[in-house]
Design goal:
Strands 1-2 form a two-stranded antiparallel sheet. It is elongated. The chain is of the alpha+beta class and 46 residues long. The protein has one domain. It has 1 helix and 2 strands; from the N terminus they run E-E-H.
């Protein structure tokens, strides 16, 4: 989605590229079973 504006405030919280670590395993995740913001993280980086 493209947003045209003079200014945008993005309040992403702590879920950009969020990882859950369980023992030696880790995987992308947000809070309590929600997905992390992988695509949003990549778009902001580019």
């Amino acid at each position: 989605e493209t947003i045209y504006s003079r200014a945008v405030v993005l309040t992403s919280g702590t879920f950009l590229k969020g990882l859950i670590h369980i023992g030696l395993q880790h995987f992308p995740a947000g809070r309590a079973g929600e997905a992390s913001a992988e695509h949003l993280s990549d778009c902001m980086r580019d």
